[in-house]
Amino acid sequence: MVVAHSSHRPGNTRNAPSASTIRLGILLSTAFILGAAVSSAFFLYQTHTLDPILSGSHLPHYHGNAAPLQEHIPRPGRGLGPPSGSGGAERKDVVQPESDERRTAGLSPPSGSGGAERKDVVQPESDERRTAASAPSSSILDGQRILVTIASYDFMQLPHLEEVLDGFIDLCYAGSKVDVVIYTTVVYPVALIDMFNDRLRCNNPSPTAGFTLTLMLKHSRVRLHLVDFHRELFYERIDQYDLFIYTEDDIRISPTTAAAYLHETRRVEGLVGAEHATDFNVGIVRYEYDFPENVVITDKTRHATENVTRVYWEHIGKPPFEKSMDKVDDPALAPYFMTCRHPHQGMYLVTPALLRAWRDRGPNCQFDKVRDRPSSTRNPGQPTEGTQRVWMSSQMMYGGRHCAIKQLLPVDSFGQLTVLHLPNKNYRRVGKQGRLGGGDGAPKNEFSDGSEVFTPTHPDLLKGLELHVAIKRQFPGPRGADVGGGGRYVGIRVVDTDINLNRVSKDHRANAKKRLGEYAAYVSRGGYLIESDLDLDVDAYRIASSV
Prior knowledge:
27% of the residues lie in helices and 12% in strands. The chain is built from twelve helices and 14 strands.
């Protein structure tokens, strides 16, 4: 049997592919390669955009501590000079530092402003700062420009203020650019300022993050009206921030608080539209912990905390939706929000859009106009709708005869908009005479009469400022932490524009001048302590310090 082989022999021919077939193969191959490339690019983009670990907002760009800056730096022997661009001889700013490497809020006035009556505190740049809406972000707080104002009259609540400031430095580490202004009537010693400079240094490398702190001195005669000054500042800077926060000095506000407010505010706008949304504001509720009134928690009594829980002492009455809470009437919002019958907050958050709308809301509102709380016509000294601080933080906004804004609290994330009232004492007032839940026959609410004697703590307990001074003694001299470009000081600023030391009592005047002089010298050398600054009585520095 012969097997036929199919090997090619000269002269044999096979059908060759046509030119059109070759072109089709090339086109198909090219299309496949391009499709694979596009798919890969899309996958990589989605990964880097949505993955919080790979997100561009987490790239390690060095940013450093963002402190507010200005042009004038006091030098030894020169005293206090005005900032550039301001007019008049009455300007007495204690420090006007600046830095080329930090593009954050400054104390200089807006461009084109002048005159001695300007009280500008914060001047952030708006054109070169990214916001959360301008780039993909893993956090609602990334790039948010936040102006915080705190009313803190003296050192009485300093332990609470320290906790409040810790909450705002956390906002910086969450990616926000935070400028804090504290209105106060006391001059902080330079050692305390130095301790806060170390504690409140934000090292978030994100170019959208930063933190500044300004102490604005006011005369002690303003008393309860210290709560008024923030409102003017909000409207002066209305175009330069994404969020404004006013608070008393004893409320712990966290990044969760700010993020929840922004999220819920956007949800309200989505449900009812931007125009109708100005009739509402997302509110907060303060809480405390109900420790037993007759027990001091020690090792012996620590089991007394077993049943301690958060209590919303300003909203009493059970069942709550018959006595203290209400559903919202608006049909679009009713499934998602509720409100309090007693909306006092001690603080508020607000967006620029809401500030503008409330300014133009009508003669009963005029949210931009600072004025006294409503009072009795027969006795103007008797408030009819709460004190001045209640008026400025809550009643002007929510009162039906005033702005009549409706407070909203989200049903599904209520706990994110509750904040700790740090003194943790007001729940003890409930049921007392003259207080919530207290009738004529209720126990009296006792106040201090000055005769109380307090048992001091053990002398070996190491105080915060005491340790800070000890550290600076062991590690003296400049360390560069609060020095920016050109050797300029870039830490906490003190501004005395609005005080006249000649009107301060003699004892307080000498102490205030001494501290302001020490601060000016501290700034002029770049922000570090010298031996004379460390000679401080950590138990007595709060005495005779007000202006």
